[in-house]
Design goal:
Number of strands: 11
Distance between the termini: 37 Å
Number of helices: 0
Helix content: under 10%
Shape: globular
Structural class: mainly beta
Order of helices and strands: EEEEEEEEEEE
Length: 114
């Protein structure tokens, strides 16, 4: 199982970024997937998740600003992040936990300047 995250970068407050996570080694379309983030000195926290049928859930602080989605043809999950704030600065990880085990992508850095 491999999860390859990309799309991070440096953006000013109020800006947008889209993260991608390419997944291989599992039947992607059948599985729940999610994003986590970890700021320096903090624990890794849940950001957003999406089920196999497209049902989504979000951490309260990102609701109405972030949108999680998936493309079951490309085996890719996305996180569209709008109205970014300095407190969104973190390393973002895509994550799978299921029958094949617990897997994390390598992380992609998002830095939001004020």
């Amino acid at each position: 199982v491999q999860l390859q995250a990309s799309g991070g970068g440096l953006v000013q407050a109020g800006g947008s970024l889209r993260l991608s996570c390419k997944v291989s080694g599992i039947n992607f379309r059948l599985n729940y997937m999610d994003w986590y983030r970890q700021a320096p000195g903090n624990q890794r926290d849940f950001v957003a998740g999406i089920s196999s049928n497209g049902t989504t859930n979000y951490q309260d602080s990102v609701k109405d600003r972030f949108t999680i989605s998936r493309d079951n043809v490309r085996n890719t999950m996305y996180l569209q992040m709008n109205s970014l704030r300095p407190e969104d600065t973190a390393v973002y990880y895509c994550h799978y936990s299921g029958g094949f085990g617990n897997y994390w992508g390598q992380g992609t850095q998002v830095t939001v300047s004020s």
